[in-house]
Amino acid sequence: ARVGGETAEMPGFYPEDEYDVAGFAVGVVDKSKILNMDSQKEGDVLIAMQSSGVHSNGFSLIRNVFTVNEQNLARHFSDLGTTLGDCLLTPTKIYVNAIQQLLAEVQPKSIAHITGGGFIENIPRMIPDGLAAHINLGSWPVLPIFDVLEKAGSIDHMEMFNIFNMGIGMVLAVSAEDADK
User: Fold this and answer.
1) CA-CA distance, 166 to 168, in Å (whole number)?
2) CA of 65: how far to CAs of 6, 14, 98, 145, in Å?
3) Is the pTM of this model over 0.85?
4) DSSP code of 77?
């Protein structure tokens, strides 16, 4: 049984009769340690963990914005401080160690990994019915790659939040008393 995750959709990526091999990991948690988002209450705080880049979402759109060829991938963008290719190859940040350290100090009420569906679709999944998140746009640094993509592709600003992580790879809900920790 698959509990969560997704299968990548990559239209136009594979030539006819070509395929990809993908892997996945399954984790186990003691029932007593499962996070309970229903313990959230008004006044709890969302804490964002910075992403390292686009991670692995939105590459179909990126391929539509930039024709993927050697010339474009080698193009240096002053806003990025590197080439487009090097920026897009930035490894996806893995949050396991940071979350394990955090769990030793604080008990988050829920956690959301910002993956497919971007920022807007993932945060509501971690909030119980009856509550809503208040997000202050501009309260975190949006990585330059997202500004470059938005401008180059003439993508609506709010649509960017439906597709990409916009500089946030993981979000945690914690009590207000634990926010500073």
Assistant:
1) 6
2) 24, 18, 33, 12
3) no
4) E
